[in-house]
């Protein structure tokens, strides 16, 4: 089958970096008061700055589709292609701009391209790896020669006060539940994109995609990161959206206890790939792992050190403290900075890792610099 190369990357992070002290200037004050959970969450995630697609009045300045299209254009600008070379577009996001149609259609329209094939992947963080694998396979099968893959998130619009203030949990307790505030002060906005082709760059290094491995463990776990459900009912089963919201059905929440139980499962996936001789920890130049919080990285490292298969921390590459957790966009944003900042040499290998707590999913991708 045809070899596939990741030839260019682009990132779009809206607005200026927002420091911790200004987060609620953009997100708003729930009930007119500052969150007591903010300091706790920030100590755990160790994010110092992030970007929001809202202004300080809470008004959207971009759309998820617009940010994704901007990232694709930036990837094309730094490539050896023109926009019209793209014949396949795969998009990924946790939530798109509309319920219907899918985000890929809107990104296609934003790009102004003629008729192309598109695919839309909606999950949580690992939908980025789903989209990358789809594009990789399309080119391997010689269906297309040039593909664009995007990941984009506009999480902050769901963190405005109106999503919490009329909920039963807030009215009864006078504050946002920690399982919701954790995500409110962890997730942020942005987009990233990659250009995949059936040939390497002629004048600059490329990443050859060696393999992509995705595994769902949903058969072992209940949902962990959710929105659109309350009291065991999905939001559309309520008599109205207002009633769903009142029961907390429109809040994005995280089950911490369940999340921690997933970490050993993700590590077992990594160890299995070592047993299958897909991964040699000593052969990895850079590990680009997307993790939502520094505290989760620490828990993973504590387990990895016991396995004897730990990749040294000096070979981990992350920009979480500066760029924030941008969900599906994160792996593109990480790789784009690695591409720019590090002097990559032929033969070096980059292992990409994207876990997803939604209902326990894990993805790996191996790249080789050529």
In words, what does this structure look like?
It is a single chain. With 370 residues, the chain is an alpha+beta fold. The protein folds into 2 domains: 4-204, 3-Layer(aba) Sandwich (Peroxisomal Thiolase, Chain A, domain 1), CATH 3.40.47; 209-219 and 251-369, 3-Layer(aba) Sandwich (Peroxisomal Thiolase, Chain A, domain 1), CATH 3.40.47. The chain has helices spanning 23-27, 38-45, 64-77, 103-111, 127-140, 168-173, 178-184, 241-246, 256-275, 294-307, 320-323, 330-341, and strands at residues 5-12, 18-19, 49-50, 88-93, 117-122, 146-153, 190-197, 207-216, 225-226, 229-230, 233-234, 253-254, 286-289, 349-356, 361-369. The strands form 4 sheets. The protein has a 9-stranded mixed beta sheet, sandwiched between helices. A two-stranded antiparallel ribbon has the order 2-3. Helix 3 crosses helix 4 and helix 9 crosses helix 10. The longest helix has 20 residues, at 256-275.
């Amino acid at each position: 089958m045809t070899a596939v190369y990741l030839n260019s990357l682009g990132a779009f992070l809206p607005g200026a970096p927002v420091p911790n002290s200004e987060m609620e200037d953009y997100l708003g004050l729930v009930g007119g008061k500052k969150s007591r959970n903010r300091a706790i969450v920030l100590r755990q995630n160790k994010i110092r700055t992030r970007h929001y697609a809202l202004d300080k009045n809470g008004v959207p300045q971009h759309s998820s589709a617009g940010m994704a299209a901007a990232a694709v254009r930036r990837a094309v600008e730094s490539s050896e292609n023109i926009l019209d070379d793209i014949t396949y577009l795969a998009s990924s996001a946790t939530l798109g701009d509309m319920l219907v149609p899918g985000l890929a259609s809107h990104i296609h329209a934003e790009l102004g391209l003629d008729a192309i094939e598109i695919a839309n992947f909606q999950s949580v963080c690992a939908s980025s790896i789903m989209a990358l694998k789809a594009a990789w396979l399309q080119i391997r099968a010689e269906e297309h020669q040039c593909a664009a893959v995007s990941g984009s998130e506009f999480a902050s619009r769901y963190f405005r006060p109106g999503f919490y203030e009329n909920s039963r949990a807030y009215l009864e307790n006078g504050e946002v539940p920690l399982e919701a505030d954790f995500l409110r002060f962890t997730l942020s906005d942005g987009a990233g994109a990659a250009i995949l082709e059936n040939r390497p760059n002629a004048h600059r290094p490329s990443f050859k995609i060696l393999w992509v491995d995705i595994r769902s463990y949903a058969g072992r776990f209940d949902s962990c990161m959710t929105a659109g459900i309350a009291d065991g009912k999905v939001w559309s089963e309520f008599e109205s959206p207002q009633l769903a919201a009142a029961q907390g059905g429109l809040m994005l929440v995280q089950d911490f206890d369940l999340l921690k139980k997933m970490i050993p499962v993700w590590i077992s996936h990594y160890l299995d790939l070592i047993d299958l001789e897909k991964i040699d920890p000593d052969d990895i130049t850079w590990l680009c792992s997307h993790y939502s919080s520094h505290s989760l990285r620490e828990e993973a490292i504590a387990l990895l050190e016991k396995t004897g298969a730990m990749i040294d921390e000096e070979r981990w590459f992350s920009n979480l403290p500066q760029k924030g957790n941008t969900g599906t966009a994160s792996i593109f944003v990480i790789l784009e900075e690695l591409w720019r900042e590090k002097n990559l040499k032929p033969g070096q290998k980059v292992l990409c890792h994207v876990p997803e707590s939604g209902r326990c999913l894990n993805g790996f991708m191996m790249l080789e610099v050529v």
